[in-house]
Amino acid sequence: MAMCGRRSVSAACHGARWAGLVTVFLLSYTHPKDNLDCAQVVTRYRECLSDTITFNDWTLEKFTDIIKKYTASAWIDDFTDRYLNFSKLDNV
Fold first, then answer.
1. Highest mean pLDDT: which of 9-13, 65-69, 88-92?
2. Which of 9-13, 17-21, 34-38 is predicted most confidently?
3. Whose CA is closest to 44, among 61, 57, 58?
4. Separation CA 3–CA 78 (nearest Å)
């Protein structure tokens, strides 16, 4: 378990093993780019790994920008507004 700001973040990765095949999984950590606590969690976690090939991190901004290149559906704008429109916090 890692602490990201005041929220605890835990990730359980489950691979599958069929008939002796090797278990493979990828852990991806996604966070807003300006959340420095989350960025520090990524750095500390990466330092614990002997091989980082099964781990990546994405900012939500990069994630949504890539999706927007492939769809014009309203859901991605709704997602961006909900999770990245921090000006809404000023009204709380």
1. 65-69
2. 34-38
3. 57
4. 27
Q: Which of 43, 42, 83, 47 is nearest to 63 (CA)?
A: 83
Q: Which residue has the higher pLDDT, 4 or 20?
A: 20
Backbone angles phi, psi at 7, to 5 degrees: -105, 140
Helix, coil or strand: residue 9: strand
Question: What is the pLDDT of the chain when averaged over all its residues?
Answer: 79
| Residue 19 tokens, joined | 């008939």
H helix runs in the chain, sequence order = 36-48, 60-70, 74-84
Pairing of strands 2-4, 7-9: antiparallel
Give the pLDDT confidence score for residue 32 in this predicted structure. Answer: 92
Report CA Rg, the chain: 16
* Number of other CB atoms surrounding residue 31 within 10 Å: 21
- pLDDT of 2 reads 45
